[in-house]
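Predict the assembly for these two chains.
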Amino acid sequence: MNIILASTSTLFGGAYLEYLKEELINLYHGIDEIIFIPFARPGGISHDDYTEKARSFFETINIKVKGLHEFDNKTEAINEAEGYFTGGGNTFLLVKNLHEENLMKILKQNIESGKPYLGCSAGSNIGGQTMKTTNDMPIVYPPSFDCMGLVPFNINPHYLDPNPELRHNGETRETRIKEFLTQNDMKVVGLREGNWIRRINDTITVEGNELTRIFEKDKEPYEIESGSQL
Amino acid sequence: MNIILASTSTLFGGAYLEYLKEELINLYHGIDEIIFIPFARPGGISHDDYTEKARSFFETINIKVKGLHEFDNKTEAINEAEGYFTGGGNTFLLVKNLHEENLMKILKQNIESGKPYLGCSAGSNIGGQTMKTTNDMPIVYPPSFDCMGLVPFNINPHYLDPNPELRHNGETRETRIKEFLTQNDMKVVGLREGNWIRRINDTITVEGNELTRIFEKDKEPYEIESGSQL
């Protein structure tokens, strides 16, 4: 496999995908066209507008972009594509769309055959085992929470440390992930913004400038450094 | 109906349910025992320990508490109870438990017949039309997102304004609710901590010290004052 699962598409104050540019040139080496999966629709943006946003970035590295929503036969489109990018937004919307059109498995099979995949935020969640560690609001009801399982754990994108100054009793991110572990025996990778997971064949590492927080059942959470294997 | 749907059980720096004490004496007037529904299990606490926490508070206003998990026949327990309290925690866990044991409708029917109900946080979410505006992590897969619909709208508990100082690209609460409105034509009440919804017969008002933010499809969000009808 040859994949990147990133916490976010955009660093604070940065431009779309800019911080990942060198990585993406490497990821998509030898490929001149990819399919963009716009179904997560951040902020309710249209599939066309979202695809245009991806296209604008990928033009700068000479890769053409087609939106998956443009194809009548989406299964065929996925099977014939050379590589993929799934943008962020709402994971429930994304997963509902992929399952209802029976595309989750098709996409998984193609990526497992070696075609490059980039996911950001919701697009990274679907690379995990399930979407049960998304931060998103359940605005629609998907037929299942199962995802592609491109890595043997779950991902929490945009991982955020507790803010001791917040006078608010909503749950912290850590509390939420610990609640997940009371119901599921599965490793969770808390991926801070600026970090990403890189899988090349069977080697899975975490990359980027920040430490990464790992949660496992019946263990205290712990931090690993960039470059560590997962 | 005679219900309170509160944003939170506990104000920052306060004791459990303390800020609602006078309201609860009024809500449960004439009643000396209620059923506590502990299924949301905040932080993975046991049903027994969570019920004990509720019991400690209700002792101070001379109301006995039985945990719903203590009954073999939960339908009968709900039908025979005089009043209810559903505590906060994880809404997905709560809704999964209630649907799988066919208790959502039974509880709804009893509350609609006039028995008093208090919900906090997740317990308030289930008073709305659906749980699609919860903030919680989808740690388990419920058979449906439908809730009791004790009020003709959805609730977002612990409503939190955007923090302009946060250098983080995760979605704000407002962004999430606006995404909900792209997929659902339903009013959402953004209930800040310290506020609650009060329904007495057919009159529904919002109460507490804060303004309340209302979201409707194709409208700019707006604020209403405490005491306003919903």
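Chain A has a mean pLDDT of 96. DSSP finds seven helices and eleven strands in chain A.
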